[in-house]
Amino acid sequence: MREDHEGFKSPEIDSKRCTDCGRCEQVCPVLHPRAAREPLAVYAAKNKDENVRSQSSSGGIFTLLAQHVLKEKGVVFGAGWSPDWRVVHKAVETDRGLADLRGSKYVQSDMKDIFKQVKKVLDLKQKVLFTGTPCQVAGLWNYLCDSITKNHPYNECLLLVDMICMAVSSPKVFNLFLQEKTHQYNKSLKQISFRSKKNGWAKKTFVLNFADNQEYVECGDTENFCKGFAQSLFNRPACFNCSCRQLKSGADITIADYWNVHKKFPALDDGRGISLVMANTPLGSRIAGHILPLCDYVASNFDDVKKNNPAVLKSFGQHPNRRLFFQHMESENVESLIREMLKPSLYRRLRNKVGRIKCKILGKIK
C-alpha cells in the first residue's frame, strides 16, 4: 500500500512478485460490486445505559453489539486511535477497550494487516465483530469468501457491521491540522471527539482536549476541518463514486444516526442521540433481537432512512476547489487554507445578498 501526495493509501502491484493469478482483481469490491439490497428490518434505538450513550456519537448501539460478541469470548475489530493520534483499525477483547472504538472518526483508518488478523481469529473458531466503512466491510467479505461458492465460510462466527458513510477524509490533512492545533495550544493532546455531546447531539461538537484542561471546542457546522470534510474539500476520490452504497457491502447490520427522529418518533427523542439500526441479513436480525431488549426502540422503515440519510443511496461530488487545496496544502497553514477554499464565490455572495434584500422587502425578515 502506497501513500499518495494527498495522504491516501492505494495498492501498488510489485511486478517482480506478481504471478498474474488475478486474485486481487477477483476480490476487488469496485470491480465486482455486490447487488443492491434493502434491510429486513429497521429500528430507531437508544442504549438504556446513559453512560455509554453519552460517550457515543448517537445511540450507543455499537457498544451493545460489541458486548454481545465479547460475552461469547469473541474479538471486536474497529477503528481507534494510535499513540500519535492516527486512526487505525485494531482488535479489542475486553469491555474496557471498547471506549477507544466508540465515536465517529471522519478520517480514513489504516487497516495494515487487520484482514489477516480477523481470519486468524476466525480460524481459531472464535467469534468476530468487524466494524468499518462499507468499503472496508466489502473488502473483508471478499477477502474471506470462497472463490467457488462466493460465500464466506465462517457462517455464524462473523458479524459484519458498517455505517452509513458519506466519505472519508485525508489522514494527511487531519495530521497537519492536529500539528497546527498542538502548536497553537503548546500542550500535549489528550483526547479527540468529532461528535461530542457536550452541547447536545444535534450540535455535533468537535472537541480537542489538551493537557492542563485546555480545550478546543467548535460546533461541527462552523469548525473548519469539519466543514472541509462536509463539503468534500479533502475527501478520498473513490468516495465520490462509491461502489458500496445501497447496502452492497455485505454487512449484517448497518448503523447510523437517526436524523429527524423528533419528527418521526418525538416520544423517543431526548436530544441525547438516537441510532438507526438496519438488520440486513438473517444473522443481523437475530443479533438485533438480542440487543434490542437493552434499548428503548421503535420499528421504522427504509423509506424514512432514504429520506433522512441520503448517503445510504448516493455519493456526493467533490468541492470545486479540491485540486487547488491539495496544490497548496503543504506550503500554507492548513486551517487558513480550508477557510479560504470554502469561501463562497463572488457570484454566490451577491446572489445571497440579493436574496436577503428580497426577503426584507417582502417582510419575511423583520
Task: Give a written overview of the molecule.
By secondary structure, this protein is of the alpha+beta class. It folds into 2 domains: 26-168 and 235-312; 171-232 and 318-348, no CATH class. The protein contains 14 helices and 13 strands. It has an 8-stranded mixed beta sheet with strand order 5-4-6-7-11-12-3-13, sandwiched between helices. α3 packs across α10 (282-291). The radius of gyration is 21 Å and the shape is globular. The model has no long low-confidence stretch (mean pLDDT 93).
Which features would summarize this protein structure in a list?
366 residues; 19% strand; three-stranded antiparallel beta sheet; 2 domains
Rg, alpha carbons? 21 Å
Distance separating the two termini:
57 Å
Secondary-structure element order, N to C: EEHEHHEEHHEHEHEEEHEHEHEHHHH
- Poorly predicted runs: none
Number of domains: 2
Q: State mean pLDDT (0 to 100 scale).
A: 93
Strand order, main sheet: write it out.
5-4-6-7-11-12-3-13
- Overall structural class, as computed from helix and strand content, comes to alpha+beta
Largest sheet, described in full? 8 strands, mixed
> Beta-sheet strand percentage?
15-25%
> Can you give the helix content as a percent range?
25-40%
Number of strands: 13
Shape: globular
Number of helices: 14
